[in-house]
């Protein structure tokens, strides 16, 4: 039996240390628009909420605030999320993104063109909580 089909990634939901500061950053840097009402945590409605941001391409980012937040910065070497990658339509879009990140004061890797394990191009940067974000292009 084959797995049922998927259409795309619907949303990405990191826990952040300052939900308002992160929301402002994601709005400014990624061009997301805030959904007006906060979303309660399913099964823990009193324990926090998420600020949800939408992108015109159809995906959402849900930034989670937990009342019982445990301080510390993100480290992809721990069990859990390693990174999230956003696709772009062309290699030239990565150059446009690096110019935008430079203008916005966001440190990044620059465009990395790789041939192994397959031809691809990527730009890596981090959000205010040090969560690794990636812009990705491959001509598949």
TrEMBL record:
Record domain VOC: where: 8-138
Pfam families recorded: Glyoxalase (PF00903)
Protein name per the record: VOC family protein
Organism: Actinomycetospora endophytica
Lineage, opening ranks: Bacteria, Bacillati, Actinomycetota, Actinomycetes, Pseudonocardiales
């Amino acid at each position: 039996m084959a797995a049922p089909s998927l259409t795309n990634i619907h949303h990405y939901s990191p826990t952040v240390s300052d939900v308002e500061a992160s929301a402002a950053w994601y709005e400014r840097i990624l061009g997301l628009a805030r959904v007006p009402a906060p979303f309660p945590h399913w099964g823990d409605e009193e324990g926090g909420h998420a600020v949800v941001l939408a992108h015109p391409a159809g995906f959402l980012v849900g930034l989670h605030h937990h009342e019982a937040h445990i301080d510390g910065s993100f480290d992809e070497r721990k069990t859990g999320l390693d990174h999230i990658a956003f696709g772009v339509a062309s290699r030239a879009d990565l150059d446009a993104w690096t110019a935008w990140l430079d203008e916005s004061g966001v440190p990044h890797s620059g465009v990395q063109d790789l041939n192994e394990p397959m031809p691809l191009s990527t730009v890596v940067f981090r959000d205010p909580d040090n969560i690794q974000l990636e812009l990705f292009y491959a001509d598949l």
